């Protein structure tokens, strides 16, 4: 069984010197420059910081997942992912499949932005108090965080699906418009972050509505509260009677995020922290106009979308949720990766892993 909570306060640590890092790099991520940028920007900085690297270049989907699941990782002090959020998702789930997962998850993880969205990298840059930056400036900032070597704990969310899968997520789960944009824009990945702008405009033009049932525990707690021992019942059973079922059943989008940024330029949950014990749940009700939806996404670049007081946009901090689509329609995503559309529920697991954080 997996723990629901760990130590009630964050424990900070520092990487040893000299330090040995396993770098998992996807050369196809984003605009396809990850290896080039690693050699030009990252390696010289790591050499100065006395961090020795072993570089593992992925050749296929799930390659990193298999590597960290099966490999003896004791020779490395940290696992570094140079790619988009999807490769870190592979790594986290590979680690959680190990028999020694509890010890292995104490090994600090590091994200270096090499993809299109780079949501966790942007979030960590934000938590470190740095100015908003993108592209190579963000890569430089995140590499500097690795060189400093400070690491802390990070929450994960476990997701259970009706088909029996159990997945671990560090960023977010989505259904509807936001997931549509993420997956539909994959064909423009060579454009880098600009793919999301183009994808947003295309999805606005064919705005869809999805029918489903959203439920969450009653009496939601403020960020910082630790989850109780058990918040979920099996998906085949009704939600507990003390849960709240959202009365609306037609949604444009549902998104549960646990970091501040949804992308480099999307500050979706400004109050989020690495270990706040909170799922920041947003949902957009049907009936919103295309103009209002566009205004929300433009405001999200500054993190001011809730200030618009849009009646269709709702935000609730929760520790668990359940989403049951009425039909297998629409795209579901976890950490930017596509999932089959089916009933799913999730629960926060406080401080389940460690991450290079800069502060």
Automatic annotation (TrEMBL):
Domain (DAGKc) ranges: 16-163
Q: What is its EC number?
A: 2.7.1.91
Tell me, what's a Pfam family for it? DAGK_cat
Q: What is its main location?
A: membrane
Q: Where found, per UniProt? A: Endomembrane system
Keyword field contains NADP: no
Choose one Gene Ontology CC annotation of this protein and give it.
Answer: membrane
Does the record's keyword annotation contain Transmembrane helix?
no
Among the GO molecular function terms of this UniProt record, one is: ATP binding
The alphabetical list of record keywords is:
ATP-binding, Kinase, Membrane, Nucleotide-binding, Transferase
What does the record list as GO biological process? cellular response to growth factor stimulus; negative regulation of apoptotic process; sphingosine biosynthetic process
Q: State what protein this is by name.
A: sphingosine kinase
Q: Which organism is it from?
A: Athene cunicularia
Lineage of origin: Eukaryota, Metazoa, Chordata, Craniata, Vertebrata
